[in-house]
Each structure stands twice: as C-alpha cells, then as structure tokens.
C-alpha cells in the first residue's frame, strides 16, 4: 500500500526574490543574511540603513510600512517576489500605555 518513493520538497531559495520589511536590524537582518547565504536575491525595506553598513548584495529601500503610498510605490518597483517576510516592528518600553504609541505599534505590526 505504501509508496516506496518518498517525495522530498525543494526548500532551496537559490535565485528566489525575497523582500524583508524591518530587515536593517535584529531578526530581519538575520533573515536577510541567511537568504543571501543560500543564494536568494534580497530586498530590505526599512526606515534606516543597516547599522553595520549595507551588504552590496542587498538592495536597500527606505520604507515606512505605515505609509500606504510608500508601500505601493515599493511594490511597483519590485519586479518579482517569491517570499515576503514582515519583520518591521517597534518596541516602546514604558510608553505602550500611551494611546498614540500603542496605535503606532499596531500600525507597524499589523497595518491599518
């Protein structure tokens, strides 16, 4: 009854096009480096350039994910996209209770 031929999924990202929001630091930066190391074409969208400098293999785009027009403009410039990772975020210790700060955190993490 069983099939002796196992199906092995292809998890290769070589040649894939990846966009990572919030990719200039933290987890997003780690994702960007990992995808690069495995042959992917990487675009990082973030408010600021990476603190440790921009890897010349990464296409860096300034992006505020709270700005719908900026998101649409970036989408129009991206020719192909296989993987999207949304790592943009904000941490505001001791300020989350302020309605305007909480609203901003929600806009970044979840969109409008």
Walk me through what this model shows.
It is a single chain. The protein is α/β, with parallel strands linked by helices and 112 residues long. The protein has one domain: Rossmann fold (3-Layer(aba) Sandwich). The chain has three helices and four strands, in the order E-H-E-E-H-E-H. Strand 1, helix 1 (26-37) and strand 2 (41-46) form a beta-alpha-beta unit. The relative contact order is 0.19.
Describe the secondary structure blueprint for this structure.
Elements: E1 17-21, H1 26-37, E2 41-46, E3 58-62, H2 68-77, E4 83-86, H3 99-110
Parallel strand pairs: 1-2, 1-4, 2-3
Low-confidence stretches: none
What is the CATH architecture term? 3-Layer(aba) Sandwich
Average pLDDT works out at 89
Shape: globular
Helix content: 25-40%
| Count of individual beta strands | 4
Question: What is the CATH C-level name?
Answer: Alpha Beta
Largest sheet, described in full?
Answer: 4 strands, parallel
CATH topology: Rossmann fold
Radius of gyration: 17 Å
Structural class by sheet pairing and helices: alpha/beta
- How many domains? 1
Order of helices and strands: EHEEHEH
CATH homolog superfamily: NAD(P)-binding Rossmann-like Domain
Number of helical segments?
A: 3
**Amino- and carboxy-terminal Cα gap:** 51 Å
Strand order of the largest sheet: 3-2-1-4
Strand proportion:
15-25%
């Amino acid at each position: 009854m069983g099939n002796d031929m196992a199906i092995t999924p292809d998890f290769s990202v070589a040649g894939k096009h990846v966009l990572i929001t919030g990719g200039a630091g933290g987890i997003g930066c780690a994702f960007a480096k990992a995808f690069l190391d495995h042959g992917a074409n990487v675009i990082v969208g973030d408010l600021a350039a990476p603190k440790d400098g921009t890897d010349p293999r990464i296409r860096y785009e300034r992006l505020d994910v709270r700005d719908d027009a900026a998101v649409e403009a970036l989408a129009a410039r991206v020719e192909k996209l296989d993987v999207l990772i949304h790592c943009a975020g904000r941490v505001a210790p001791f300020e989350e209770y302020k309605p305007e700060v909480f609203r901003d955190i929600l806009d970044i993490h979840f969109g409008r």
